[in-house]
Amino acid sequence: xxxxxxxxxxxxxxxxxxxxxxxxxxxxxxxxxxxxxxxxxxxxxxxxxxxxxxxxxxxxxxxxxxxxxxxxxxxxxxxxxxxxxxxxxxxxxxxxxxxxxxxxxxxxxxxxxxxxxxxxxxxxxxxxxxxxxxxxxxxxxxxxxxxxxxxxxxxxxxxxxxxxxxxxxxxxxxxxxxxxxxxxxxxxxxxxxxxxxxxxxxxxxxxxxxxxxxxxxxxxxxxxxxxxxxxxxxxxxxxxxxxxxxxxxxxxxxxxxxxxxxxxxxxxxxxxxxxxxxxxxxxxxxxxxxxxxxxxxxxxxxxxxxxxxxxxxxxxxxxxxxxxxxxxxxxxxxxxxxxxxxxxxxxxxxxxxxxxxxxxxxxxxxxxxxxxxxxxxxxxxxxxxxxxxxxxxxxxxxxxxxxxxxxxxxxxxxxxxxxxxxxxxxxxxxxxxxxxxxxxxxxxxxxxxxxxxxxxxxx
Length: 459
Prior knowledge:
alpha+beta, flat
């Protein structure tokens, strides 16, 4: 991260977290000198501030620790700007001691954020991810979802300003995973509240029913029977109205959840689209930049598929044998030595969406080429199961996917990944395309010599 970018990051975070600063002219002067890289003057003024804090008998031990934390943060900021790793780490440790002694949650949150900045700045991404996750988890547990969202947005913006593709990638991946998890938490909270309300209503109805049953045993005569029937009718009406009301609320909740999901997909797509012009200006020859560009493209594709679940997919009559053979020929340059690529498709045609099916089968075949060892086999087959149901099968003699992992390979954003090793969105995108064609992709559990993916389509 550049010096200018780092100072912007610190300033924005102070605003985002609501951190307070000394109002004295000396402290403001020291901050200005830090920003202007006037290091010797700033170190002198910070030392004077420390002496003033120590001499102030009105401050409690906790308040004194909180103020010393700020001066240590100022020294840490300058050593980071000078790229003095050892001295920066020394003052980061002091900041942690003072933050713990302050017993102040805002100071401790500020420490977590600055620790993440420290690790990202000096290329310690794993530690940076861990600290940032700790802070996000802490705020999420307290229900402060808006604050976590604000901090993630700040970190992404700082990475973009400073030209740090690595920081943008790390923050963006963590943000997507966190957004999905908190969406489910909010949805579950709303669902549980609705279930509780329904249970209370059912308990009330049962209580009334029991009272009516008790009255029925004590009342004799025709008029009594008429009164009981009238009471049952009244209760039945109330129950019916209650059920109608609850049904409407459930429908509204489901509709709101669907609308929120569509908004989330649109929001994610907009973020990815906004990042694209910036990413295109970076050096695409670098693997991490290329990976980030591909990740942004995949995000837009997945969001577009999720945003239009009811979109009609056009089908066309396609000759299967040449269609499958072309896909198989495309991957032959990618396979290892001695690998045999075979096609078993009948000389017939079928109604399919060529774009979607080509994308899915090409992705499955490329994965097979990647994981099939030398002298192995890759096979693309077509099977017609009924008049309106057919299957494409892609099998290889490479690695075997354990049963406990098969369901998760089609789910996006389950973990924060190293994007240069793949973003894990290929199979989720393929599954979304299959769903749009009234189909699905599964892993054949009976195939034990490697892995077999089955694309089932129903016309």
